[in-house]
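Cross-check.
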Amino acid sequence: MLRIPFFGKSAPPPIETVMQQTVALLQQGNPVDAEATVLKHLQLVEKQIGKKSSAYSETQAGYAALLRMLGKQQAALSAYEAACAYEPPRSDRAARKDWLTFLTDYGQALEEADRLEEARVILQRGIEGRREYYGAFHPGFAFGLEPYAALLMRMERYEEAKAMQEQAVEIFLQSQHPRFVPALALLAAARQSTNEQGALLKGIVALPLSAVEQLATEGPELLERFPNWIRQPVLLEVAALVTEQCGAISPVRLNLLAQIANNETEAGADANHEVRLLAARMSYDALKETGDAKRMIQGLMGLAYAQTEAGNGSDADDSYRKARLLAEENADDSLASQVTRNHGLALSEQEDRERAEPLLRDAVALAVRSGDRVMQGRSECALGIFLQHGDRHDEAKPLLEAALEHLPATEADAIYARSHYTALQQGGACGCGQMEGAFFENYCLAIREQVEKEMPGLLKSIAYKGGDGEEVGLQVEINRKPTEKEMERLHIVVTQAEAAFRQRMIEQG
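Predicted model, tokenized:
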């Protein structure tokens, strides 16, 4: 990498050194200082070297990667854009190679943000640059083809995507590059999208065990943004391959089966109940072989959910009972509470309130006995909302109050509890229509907690405002005039807390 010397002052350290420090801070559980470290380096590089430099571009790219990891997607896109703004001369081979990587990363980040046409322009630019830099038969060129093929799949340009991915796979295969394995998963998805006949994973010849495990591990993430009718047939073929070569109780197989079942859950009305039941049953059967009671209980709950969704209520009851008994045999009151709560909720959704209520009450008692505050809050929330929906408001209110006391603001159940509690305070029968207000109230509480932890005493108030002529967004009021460094740190803390809260909501579904 070209470095520009400075006389009379020390040059900024290499970005590699800064990123090593950043990773260490992340591993220590200190993301605020991690981001502050990269931002400080970025400001130093801009001041001493300037924006039109490879050093500035690579620092912006490192900053973008960190922001992306922290869930700050919009800020990451701005950093990637800045990283790609300076195009190094062709004579600077090292800098140009890095710049091509930045283009690919930027394009993929745009695609993740559903800005598909912008992503197409950036990735096309990267392909042209890679063809010139590497040649048309080098793995470096194939690394540009693959994300473009994935983007074409998102744009439903399936024939083009398949042709491009066939080219990428052939390059990886001929060069014996390890990327061949996950690239084949994308090609299989392209084959499925064009209704190609035969095995989707054809082309695999005597893969080593590590490559099969790689396929099972990376495949779900690689295909996650494609429609279910495309990704599931591929994952089922991968599952069969993993079962054959890795064994029924292989951790990668169990994780893959769980992902297949989750895909059907997320599909909603378009779910294939046969596939979900098959995956859940195979997962539970394998977990029985491991003898791991906690995982068996989780497997039984997954099976019970699949059975409920498929309309097999009596089978679901049996699975819940088995899970509850297993939790009791292992003296795990917290897990027993979770099982019982889920069973009660399933019955409630089926309008079987008579059987649901004792289970939901039992779940609260088990959670209290376990000493697990979060599980107690979840069970109190479930019972409280159940009673509120049954017009038993006096019984519901103390349960919802208790749930809010026991649940962190970042718990999805805390939002449900708050929306229903607020409705009770306002004389309403149900809080299901007040979820947005509860979301933003918990959103502000979570940010307040993080700011108070990092910068105690600085924050006076925080609220979310929007509509009716007001400026939309967070309104933060502080107790005193902060220093410039404090303002910079406050911005990092707030934006990280925002991203973490939203990511937590996504993870909890």
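The chain has 22 helices and two strands. Confidence is low (pLDDT under 50) at residues 1-8. Passed to J.P. for a second look.
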